[in-house]
Amino acid sequence: xxxxxxxxxxxxxxxxxxxxxxxxxxxxxxxxxxxxxxxxxxxxxxxxxxxxxxxxxxxxxxxxxxxxxxxxxxxxxxxxxxxxxxxxxxxxxxxxxxxxxxxxxxxxxxxxxxxxxxxxxxxxxxxxxxxxxxxxxxxxxxxxxxxxxxxxxxxxxxxxxxxxxxxxxxxxxxxxxxxxxxxxxxxxxxxxxxxxxxxxxxxxxxxxxxxxxxxxxxxxxxxxxxxxxxxxxxxxxxxxxxxxxxxxxxxxxxxxxxxxxxxxxxxxxxxxxxxxxxxxxxxxxxxxxxxxxxxxxxxxxxxxxxxxxxxxxxxxxxxxxxxxxxxxxxxxxxxxxxxxxxxxxxxxxxxxxxxxxxxxxxxxxxxxxxxxxxxxxxxxxxxxxxxxxxxxxxxxxxxxxxxxxxxxxxxxxxxxxxxxxxxxxxxxxxxxxxxxxxxxxxxxxxxxxxxxxxxxxxxxxxxxxxxxxxxxxxxxxxxxxxxxxxxxxxxxxxxxxxxxxxxxxxxxxxxxxxxxxxxxxxxxxxxxxxxxxxxxxxxxxxxxxxxxxxxxxxxxxxxxxxxxxxxx
Length: 568
Prior knowledge:
- The chain is of the alpha/beta class.
- About 35% of the residues lie in helices and about 15% in strands.
- The chain has 3 domains: about 1-170, Rossmann fold, CATH 3.40.50.970; about 190-350, Rossmann fold (3-Layer(aba) Sandwich), CATH 3.40.50.1220; about 355-535, Thiamin diphosphate (ThDP)-binding fold, Pyr/PP domains (Rossmann fold).
- Strand 6 (about 125-130), helix 7 (about 135-150) and strand 7 (about 155-160) form a beta-alpha-beta unit.
- About 50% of the residues are buried.
């Protein structure tokens, strides 16, 4: 049966199990949008910006485990996808973006809205394609989904000229057994496994570094078994939060620039690091030359390129984490580390991360740390948080313990402001039964607040908490600590967020006192029919502590000054 390229796009998506896409139409993709009317099984979410479409597809993918799909037209429609592609690339999120392109006969002629999106997106995609013949479409789209979801997941872009969408061909569905270069078989060298077991058995001060790969692999049970069998403390990356219960007695909390003092100290004093599904990025290592200088290192990751890239390791195991750990655990004897855990306990007692909660309550101003603590206490912690980027992101990581997987989604590698609200829409559409909070700063919220219209249009019941301190807070903090308090271009003039919510028909409320928090959070939770917005007005000059200055030793942490926010 003859099909146009436009029809083939949707049929290919259906065959990949896609029933939800996010996009924004335009001239070069119009044939595909016209054909969409023939495919009622695919629901299209009309976003207000193409970047919002990528973040929604990203959130949907993270929360569902499926490949997220975003669609845009050529030119500015395509370039508006780049930030979302970069976000997905650095956080290993499976996504396929489909863009319209000018006709093949016009390529290279600087036609209206022609842009080389394949060239532009090369560094922010796992792979990309320009489809020049309609017969290629089924093969390219099938391969695109395979690339996106296989191995270390990532985003793929498929650019389809308008005349390819309009051309007709006889349908052909490839039943390909695709095999990509670099795909990993679980054929581990038994000698490497034995070496890893020997290092674990010989260690007196081991630490597990739990990363995002644990969640991608579904290896939470194996990591917990490893930690409990060998009595090993667990430190979490930002994207690894939820991979290990944070209230477990072996959990050290988050590591890195704004990690707990005990976690960073333990890593620096360890004699063995077991890095699981993490990539030793600069935000968790600090100064590489002095990073955990006395430790042996075991690194397990599905991406061979990450082994030894930043930190030299003694044993590198390449493979899908869950089955690798199953093999490792087969012959691993139990062991205790009482003295090591006692030492870590002393570091915990000396730390002051949560002291701000005690001291803040003696002052008149609502602190952002209190907001995160209240969200955790008054929701029972049984919610999904989607955070934006900045101080509030770190406060959420510090003061909201995550007990189960898939309850925190954030932009980790790219640090994309404006991520939270559109991503939360995608998360809620993927997991409608869950309570979802988008936690944003006043700066990041203004970058994508146009997507409030999308939330209303789709009836997406997300709770939006704006932590408003009137600044670009994290940049202001750096200016305070490292630029002699020259607060250049960081005071943030914000609109009346509640009135903006009202303009969109969204219920809203504002809170500036701690005694209002419980009632306000519960009022927000009571709204079930669509989005609700809560503005949290907090102390302007608070900072996130501890803090490891960029490039400093991991244990060279700046601590919270004791006099801060105490009443005279």
